[in-house]
Amino acid sequence: MKMKRNWLILRGLALLLVLLIGFSLVGGCAKPAPPQDQSKGAEKPVETVKVGVIDCYTGAATTYTYDALDGFKLALEEIKEEGTLGFNIEFVTRDDEFSPDKSLNWAKELVMREEVDLLAGIINSAAALGVSQYAKEEKVPFLVWGSMSDKITGEAGHRYVFSMLPNTAIIGRSGAIQMSSMPYTKYFLAGSDYEYGHSVVNNFWENFTEMKPDATKVGELWWPVREPDFTPHISTIRAAKPEVVIVGTGGADMVPFLKAVNSTGLNKEVKIWVHTATDLSTLKPLGAEAPEGIFGTNPYHHYFPDTPENKTFVEAFKKAYGRAPAAFALNGYIAGHSIAGALRKLDTFDKEKFIDALEGLTIDSPVGPVTIREYDHQIISPMFFGTTVKSDEPFLVAGDIVTLSGKDVIPPVEKIQAKRK
Amino acid sequence: MDFSAILSQFPDLYTLAGQFFVGMSRAMILFVVAAGLTVVMGVLRIVNFTHGTFYMLGAFIAFSVAQWLGGSSGFWLALLIAPLIVAALSFVVESTLMRRIYDQPRLMQLLLTYALVLAFNDLIKIVWGVHYKSMANPIPGSISLGGATLPSYNLILLAAGPLVALGLWFFMSRTMMGKLCRATATDREMVDALGINSKQVFASVFVLGCYLAGLGGTLIAPTTNIVIGMGMGIIINAILVVVVGGLGNVWGALVVSFIFGIGESFGVLFAPRFALVFPFLIAATLLMIRPSGLMKSVW
User: Fold this and answer.
1) pTM score > 0.90 for this model?
2) CB of B122 closer than 8 Å to CB of B52
3) Residues 28-87, chain A: which have Cβ within 8 Å of B?
4) Distance from C-alpha of A378 to C-alpha of B255, rounded to nearest angstrom
5) What is the value of ipTM here, to two decimals?
């Protein structure tokens, strides 16, 4: 009897083992295979610059990360096709699953074993800050194209880190600049209870109260990340009777939050500002359920600005990936072309010289010329303020778009200096 | 402190009423999931972590069914089909794996159910990809309840809870299988001694529990992001509900779900900073007063 029981346990365990191995094998294969060996076929030996891309490629943030990666890949394709760059740019990807520990481990692996020359990516703010610290110690240039934390090029900034997208200081300032001309006085501050949410809202409020001293705060509310149901929170906002709600949320919470705004009709009672509420990656999954009349800031729209440069980019992106590029695609694209722009100034690759070349570099982009500010390595690019409106597409788009120039929305160098003291 | 400011911030009756209904609809989802879990835990006596996974599968399958059919009728058919598919899947899991661990030490059971959680997460990655999914709300818009607004969809949730409770009551007290379930839950040896095929009872209880998990997942799908890992959030709360309500006691699960849902929604209204802690505070208090659960536990 006992033997039979033991045998049963053994059989159960064996089955479990087989099952687990089977799933992990299949799971492993399903992960995005890092495209490699792009240097194959090159006729004469040219120096290869290897970029190690770390980002969250499974989970809720993938809507953004794949856009950024595809934008980067497109830039590399274009550079290769043009063929005048004296370098090969190669890249490998690593999936950190939104975990700061994993990002740091991958960064170490990439630098030590893969011997990459540059690091890039990372949407998770804590992870980006951790890897930034590592990049500083190892003296490896690190181009952030995911995290919007203003700490990266703010108080935690250093020589080896670059931010290739508008950070929360710029986002908050953009919203404040545009909204300070509106007649409202009663404001409610809300958002996801994590770095990005607080940072956007604090930056907004700091700038806004300077521009509009008569604005009052009628309440504040922070919900946990991945909140499954926003209706109770919306009742709380409503109960405070604000005129405007300032929201700092993104990633996993953006779509359900706007869904709840629409189903409760909150957008019909109060004005709401959410950064990237007007972005394609927010409005497309929402479809017809997106609330109308939401204010949003966004660094990029595939239909705006209506310039030949933007149209060319959109066409190329659509041709390569079968979809229109959303805001994050621009980040990766600008990062790719910035790397090339800096390399053009070099004869042989050297990390220190590469950084010198990146500092103050201006490149042409789908949104016009963008510059990497010399002092803090923050990209200066325009911001677009719009309102969600119905369109011919099966989803809403941004209407009444106002362009805020990059120079106006970036905080002055003195503010960054003050923060670093 | 400015008292008039605090007073003006105090929500009016409409808000309170609205928040009550919101909390109730939240409680209903929790109840549907916890009812399934309590039946499984009561009769099978395993701590089934896979329950949350079946909830997640319900949401993913509902998404696919609705997308495949298209239009607003998609959801209603998904509501019928998705939980059934989940139930069928759970039958396969029960007859191949779960069946082998009922007599094993509890550690073995935890090992298997948790391993299944990981395995199914990878399976979902393969089938549905890594991006989160968003499903169309079948009845968008909101209704006005005397000044308070409530999303129309919440009405479905409000209706679903009592229906499930009634259905379970009917099953448990009026059908042969239900009576066997209750008997097995209270005195398994006696049932075995009477020569009843307890294997069959176990299988049907497991499938019923997972059907309810799938139903919960389908119901929540239109209001939220359908994403890998969504099951983990609810399983913790569901286990709490089951423990506090009394293991295997459906009515206990119903009462505690109400307390949790309403406690949480009013917590958000009055002390949003601490809203996350409310269910755990309630659970701790109730367990201190009644360590064996609010209602009679079958364990």
Assistant:
1) no
2) no
3) 30, 57-60, 62-63, 66
4) 54
5) 0.74
